[in-house]
């Protein structure tokens, strides 16, 4: 027995397994206890859930906060819609203004094009006149200048001075312009009553001249008619040769024949009808 105990004590491999087993068993038991506790706690949590709100005022505060946020969002949305409507109206007004300006510019462009065409036609006419003026030779220009000088001299004699002067054509034109300006100034200084009276006198003189011209034209026409009549009367009469023209024959009138019919039987019947009825009564 002593030898067996010594062998057990001396052999280290015999004690170690027993210690490990005890430790493993204790750890396993602790694990089982902990697991059982956790399972029991989890079952308690499942049956009794934790509340989010611990005080009713928290719920009221949250509802109030959410309501304020909703109101703020509604106000922001309303403000954005108003801004959008203002932008839409501004865009529409800008578009209408642009269309109106475009129409106005189109009309101006058309007007300018018409004016350009008119000015081009005028420039063409002026170019033709210049070419005609350049094509004229010196003799023709001298003739035209002489004719113009004669007209200016005639107007100068009638309106400014009827005496013979040695003034040039330009000086005569200057005198005519001065005379016209003086007459216009004098016309402006005349009272309206005298001016109206002078206009009436001029109109009456104009009408009388027109009447005299009309009478003179009528007398000339009458003289011309009388002259042609005398020429026809004094001219030799032409003898008409050939067959004389006869009027067209009228168709014969058809005579209507009236037949005399004896109406005595009808009278007898009427007489019999009238007087026979009286006899029967």
Describe the structure.
81% of the residues lie in helices and 0% in strands. The protein has a domain at 140-192. The protein contains 7 helices and no strands. The chain has helices at 2-10, 12-47, 56-135, 138-159, 169-189, 192-234, 264-280. The model is unreliable at 1-29 and 277-281 (pLDDT under 50). By secondary structure, it is an all-alpha fold.
Q: Could you state the order of secondary-structure elements as H and E?
A: HHHHHHH
Helix content: over 70%
Kindly state the number of beta strands: 0
What is the alpha-carbon Rg in Å?
70 Å
Span of the ends, CA to CA:
201 Å
Number of helices: 7
Specify the structural class: mainly alpha
Largest sheet: none
Overall form: flat
Beta-strand content: under 5%
* Stretches with pLDDT under 50, minimum 5 residues: 1-29, 277-281
The overall pLDDT average reads 75
InterPro entries: CFAP_domain-containing
Keywords: Coiled coil
Biased composition (Basic and acidic residues): 38-47, 202-239
Biased composition (Polar residues): 24-37
Q: What is the compact description of this entry?
A:
This protein has a domain at 140-192.
Task: Pick out its properties.
281 residues; mainly alpha; 81% helix; 0% strand; flat; CFAP_domain-containing
Set out the fold topology.
Blueprint: H1 2-10, H2 12-47, H3 56-135, H4 138-159, H5 169-189, H6 192-234, H7 264-280
């Amino acid at each position: 027995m002593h030898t067996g105990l010594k062998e057990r004590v001396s052999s280290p491999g015999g004690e170690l397994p027993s210690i490990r087993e005890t430790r493993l068993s204790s750890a396993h038991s602790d694990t089982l206890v902990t697991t059982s506790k956790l399972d029991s706690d989890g079952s308690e949590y499942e049956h009794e859930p934790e509340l989010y709100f611990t005080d009713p005022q928290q719920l009221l505060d949250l509802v109030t906060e959410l309501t304020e946020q909703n109101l703020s969002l509604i106000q922001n949305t309303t403000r954005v819609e108003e801004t959008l409507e203002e932008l839409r109206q501004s865009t529409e007004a800008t578009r209408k203004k642009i269309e109106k300006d475009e129409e106005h510019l189109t009309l101006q462009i058309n007007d300018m094009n018409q004016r350009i065409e008119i000015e081009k036609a005028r420039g063409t006419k002026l170019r033709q006149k210049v070419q005609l003026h350049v094509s004229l030779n010196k003799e023709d220009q001298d003739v035209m200048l002489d004719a113009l000088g004669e007209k200016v001299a005639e107007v100068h004699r009638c309106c400014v001075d009827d005496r013979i002067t040695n003034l040039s054509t330009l000086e005569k034109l200057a005198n005519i312009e001065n005379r016209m300006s003086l007459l216009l100034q004098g016309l402006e200084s005349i009272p309206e009553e005298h001016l109206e009276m002078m206009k009436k006198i001029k109109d009456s003189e104009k009408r009388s001249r027109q009447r005299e011209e009309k009478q003179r034209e009528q007398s000339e026409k009458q003289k011309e008619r009388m002259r042609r009549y005398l020429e026809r009367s004094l001219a030799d009469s032409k003898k008409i040769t050939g067959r004389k023209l006869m009027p067209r024959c009228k168709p014969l009138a058809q005579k209507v024949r009236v037949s005399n019919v004896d109406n005595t039987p009808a009278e007898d019947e009427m007489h019999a009808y009238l007087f026979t009825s009286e006899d029967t009564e």
